[in-house]
UniProtKB/TrEMBL annotation:
Protein name: Uncharacterized protein
Lineage: Bacteria, Bacillati, Actinomycetota, Actinomycetes, Pseudonocardiales
InterPro entries according to UniProt: EACC1
């Protein structure tokens, strides 16, 4: 069982937000969390939360997995592990990774087959936005 913070608080400012879309979204997100927690670099950095659904979406709340950012390439660890998890899925699942500033990357099974590209894109989300 995994803890879920059911508050509708804003997403932590120094965290990546991972949302899963596809069959059994909530179960898939829990499975992703259980997979990521095995990474030593991510232990203590993962939290499941409820957040308000996007405008126009049906339903009031959606589950998200927050990954607290820190030194040591947290984004690369998330991207590599997430890519491995995705290619092992039997269902069509897409993960949306959202940076603290709102920039997003969408990763599905096909894109996960190129983990180097996924790692590069997620790392770009964790870097400050250039003007």
């Amino acid at each position: 069982m995994h803890p879920i913070d059911r508050s509708a608080d804003a997403i932590a400012p120094a965290a990546l937000s991972l949302a899963v879309r596809g069959p059994g979204m909530s179960d898939q997100l829990g499975a992703l969390r259980n997979w990521l927690v095995r990474e030593n670099a991510l232990r203590g950095r993962l939290e499941l939360r409820r957040r308000p659904g996007a405008e126009g979406e049906m339903g009031a709340l959606a589950d998200v997995l927050l990954v607290a950012l820190g030194a040591g390439g947290t984004g690369a660890v998330v991207a590599r592990s997430m890519s491995t998890w995705l290619v092992q899925r039997r269902s069509d699942v897409t993960i949306t990774v959202t940076a603290p500033d709102g920039r997003q990357v969408h990763v599905d099974v096909q894109r996960a087959r190129n983990p180097v590209a996924v790692i590069r894109e997620v790392e770009q989300l964790t870097a400050p936005e250039r003007e």
